[in-house]
Amino acid sequence: MRDIGIVGAGQAGLLLAFALRSEGYPVTLYSDRTPEQIFNARIQATTYLFGRACQYERELGLNFWEGQGDHSQGGDLDICGAPGTRALRVYGRVRVPGMAVDLRVKYPRWLGELERRGGTVVYHSMDSQGLEALASRHELVVVTTGRNSFPGLFERDAERSPHTRPARNLAAMVIRGMRTWNDTPFPALKFVLAPGHGEYFSMPYHDRIRGPETCILVEAIPGQGLDRFGDARDAAEMFARMRGVVHDFSPWLESRLEGASIVDESSWLVGGFTPMVRKPVGRLASGKVVLGLGDAVILNDPIAGQGLNCASKAAHALFEAIREWGDRPFTEGWMQETSERFWQREGKYITAFTNLLLSPASPHMQGFLGAASEVRSLGDLFFDNFGEPQRFWPWIDSAEQTQALIAEAARAEVKQGAGGA
């Protein structure tokens, strides 16, 4: 069994550690925060997991919050023709439900569980000199910490990183007492798309203290109508501005915020970051190499909800690659090949889909959404593919293939209707 060190106690690092421990690998995980510090921190991200990422956690026995709140069984999208008007609505079911759990309760529970299962957890801030020591101690060091750690260790991949500044200004908040925003016959993620201004989303959310609540994420195009949260001073001001957004852009949802409020002062955030893909192998001053994973390598805007999902999938792929590699040395070539394989199979589609949503919809995608508002199977397809973005290809790049997909779905619905009659 190979001795592996993992730097970072986020989704990628913890999931990789548990997967390796399930096969008996000696694992040491290095966290710069204790469970208590994580639990008492501010929210740092939205946390929705689609079906396959949830399944990985089930297989490892980490789904401690199963049954303690609504699993989202689909999505519900309103597209504004202009602020305050709804041009069309698309909704659909997914095949495997997903859920969102507050990371401030999830990761502390997981850290304790990892130690219970025989993993070693070291609570210590890590710098480049510390990485040198780890590279001498472990056969493989995997760095999973995100955008502010070890600057320059993982080089920006210019060919795969079209953004040079934040595409959206972000605001997120955990809400108590909010009535659901969707009218679907099943629990669903709610999307509101305001072309030229941005997007906002509502999701069932398991809060660290209160259990089932709701989380809202606002994706504001800088300088446009949704971009009104950056200088908010407290939870009351954040919520008042959210009510203003809903009043101005989707007044049909406004009454559902009556009597609601942000959970507490630690349950909101504002900010933004530049999406980026980095090269996966970092070279230390000594010449030793470490492998990047998760946000350290693929950092996407949260508009498509892919952050934790990409981290989970990448961790699972790396675990399988380690297991298959046997006792051979973890060379730089193996690191490059393993990372590139994940990029080609999934990473590039996750990133491309996220970047598509950050751009104005193409005419054929507008046509698809229009058809999906009327053909139920297309609505199901659209939302189900959020969990597996590679399924959007190749048709999403082709007006002809998109039109053929629409025509086929429409024929199938007519045939099914005739059969039912």
Structural summary, described in words:
The protein is an alpha/beta fold. The protein has three domains: 4-63 and 102-163 and 275-357, FAD/NAD(P)-binding domain, CATH 3.50.50; 72-99 and 168-271, 2-Layer Sandwich (D-Amino Acid Oxidase, Chain A, domain 2), CATH 3.30.9; 363-420, no CATH class. It is 36% helix and 23% strand. It is built from eleven helices and 17 strands. It has helices spanning 11-22, 35-39, 51-59, 103-116, 128-137, 235-249, 307-325, 332-357, 363-372, 376-384, 399-420; strands at 4-7, 27-31, 48-49, 72-82, 85-100, 120-123, 140-143, 169-176, 189-194, 198-207, 211-220, 261-262, 268-271, 276-277, 281-283, 289-292, 298-299. The strands form three sheets. Strands 3, 4, 5, 8, 9, 10, 11, 12 and 13 form a nine-stranded mixed sheet that branches. The mean pLDDT is 95.
